[in-house]
From TrEMBL:
Gene3D superfamilies: 3.40.50.450, Phosphofructokinase domain. The gene is pfkA. One of its GO terms (biological process) is fructose 1,6-bisphosphate metabolic process. Allosterically activated by ADP and other diphosphonucleosides, and allosterically inhibited by phosphoenolpyruvate. Belongs to the phosphofructokinase type A (PFKA) family. ATP-dependent PFK group I subfamily. Prokaryotic clade 'B1' sub-subfamily. ADP binds at residues 25-29, 159, 190-192, 218-220. ATP binds at residues 15, 76-77, 106-109. It comes from Aquimarina spongiae. This is ATP-dependent 6-phosphofructokinase. It is found in: Cytoplasm. It comes from the Bacteria. Its EC number is 2.7.1.11. Substrate binds at residues 130-132, 167, 174-176, 227, 252, 258-261.
Length: 328
């Protein structure tokens, strides 16, 4: 029989994402509702290793639903990759009487959680929180929607100045290994070209497309580039390449950077975080372990870490075709 759950720990790990605070709030409030003690660890796995924690109740998460970032702070812990590090973390959990953990983060967080849970037989539930949306086992990760809106807003502003000066802008967005942000914001902002890690469109095609744009009478253009784009050139090299080959273009570069991870979460992300985290606590109380929660076809689901981590969240390449048609 599964051990009774009296105390649940929660932490945020990896790159922060808007909506992580809404997630922490939902864990703390669901714990309060079900009469379970809740303990928050600072800086993800590193805080578990160091025993850096705070007791949380329904009131300690007041007014955080609208705040970006994470009140528990976030980090990537090298020490947790070692068995000794994980042992230190487990010792602190035991000392605090923690029976189960809710881990809010990306695939790296889930991989760490899976190993930890198997090594020490402690139930963990993963909650997908990353702006990259690169986790299978959910259609949407917490923070992705807000990041998209931030990016769209920035591109709209750049479009204004691009069009006033008849310029071509290369705009780099986040996504080291995944092009979800680039592809969806690119379509949403009406970019002329979108370069993503999942598809190598090639430099020739880029030049052809920009020549076509000029011929069709466009005076300004936007190219959205994912930071992990497959062409193999960074955004500045791409801009130089186009300047050399198409001297008629007046080219500029904007790297949006970490501003994409900040800001007040959208309603979608707040609701998503709330739904997923209530479910995470309820699953633990029902004796479930080693799964990630997610939203699939608008239903809250539980997927085993094995399944969730073994496949890639596939990007909708149909959007590249749509973008091609609409940038005519
Ligand atoms: O949060 C995910 C992500 O934004 C990636 O797209 C990006 O490559 C990475 O984090 C950068 O994070 P950091 O600067 O914190 O290492």
């Amino acid at each position: 029989m599964a051990k009774e759950i009296r105390t649940i720990g929660v932490m945020t790990s990896g790159g922060d994402a808007p909506g992580m605070n809404a997630a922490i709030r939902a864990v703390a409030r669901a714990c309060a509702y079900y009469n379970v003690k809740c303990i928050g660890f600072y800086r993800g796995y590193q805080g578990m290793i160091e025993g850096d924690y705070c007791e949380m109740n329904a009131r300690s998460v007041r007014n955080i639903i609208s705040q970006g970032g994470t009140i528990l702070k976030s980090a990537r812990s090298e020490e947790f990759r070692t068995k000794e590090g994980r042992k230190k973390a487990m010792d602190h959990l035991k000392k605090l009487g923690i029976d189960a953990m809710v881990l809010i983060g990306g695939d790296g967080t889930f991989r760490g959680g899976q190993i930890f849970s198997e090594e020490f037989d402690i139930p963990v539930i993963g909650v997908p929180g990353t702006i990259d949306n690169d986790i299978s086992g959910t259609n949407y990760t917490i923070g992705y929607d807000t990041a998209l809106n931030t990016v769209i807003d920035a591109i709209d502003k750049i479009r204004d100045t691009a069009s006033s000066h008849d310029r071509l802008f290369f705009i780099e967005v986040m996504g080291r290994d995944a092009g979800f942000i680039a592809l969806n914001s690119g379509v949403g902002a009406g970019a002329e070209e979108i370069l993503i890690p999942e598809e190598d469109l090639g430099l020739d095609r880029l030049l052809e497309s920009l020549k076509r744009s000029k011929r069709s009478g466009k005076s300004s253009s936007i190219v959205v580039v994912s930071e992990g784009d497959k062409i193999g050139k960074n955004v500045y090299e791409l801009a130089d390449y186009v300047t050399e080959n198409l001297p008629d273009y007046d080219v500029r570069v904007t790297v949006l950077g970490h501003m994409q991870r900040g800001g007040s979460p959208s309603c979608f992300d707040r609701t998503l975080a709330s739904r997923l985290c209530v479910k995470a606590v309820e699953l633990l109380l029902d004796g479930e372990k080693n799964v990630m929660v997610g939203l699939i076809d608008n239903k809250v689901t539980a997927t085993s870490f094995d399944e969730g981590l073994s496949s890639e969240h596939e990007i909708n390449k149909e959007l590249l075709r749509i973008s091609d048609i609409l940038s005519t």
